Amino acid sequence: MVLKELINECKKHNRKAQKEIYDRFSGNLFASCLKYAPNYEEAQDVLQDTFIVVFNKIDQFKDDGSFEGWCRRIAVNTALQRYRKKKFLI
Question: Do 3 and 20 touch, CB atoms closer than 8 A?
């Protein structure tokens, strides 16, 4: 399926489309998460949290930009939020 079609299907909460997007982008996003997370397990948590946000806010994605770039920005923001929370808890 073409990316634009996948995004439209995800907006309709189609699980198969969500899985395909996850499969397509999780590798690159995980690499981004590893840059911001202190360890492998934290990076996995950040990745999962990232996809929760991506699928909850996919209606806000505008077709004029890169979907992968939009997802990467969410991943970075998610990692930074987790870091700030942990910093306050210490």
Answer: no
Question: What is the spatial distance between Cα 11 and Cα 90, in angstroms, rounded to a whole number?
Answer: 38
The CA distance from 51 to 57, in Å, is 10
Q: How distant is the alpha carbon of residue 14 from its chain centre?
A: 17
The pLDDT tens digits for 55-77 are 999 999 988 889 999 999 999 99
- Report how far Cα 58 is from the mean position of its chain's Cα atoms: 10
- Topology of the domain comprising 26-89: Rna Polymerase Sigma Factor; Chain: A (1.10.1740)
Taking the C-alpha atoms of residue 89 and residue 65, their distance in angstroms, rounded to an integer, is 36
Tokens of 21: 């997007």
Cα 86–chain centre separation:
20
pTM exceeding the 0.85 threshold for the entire prediction: yes
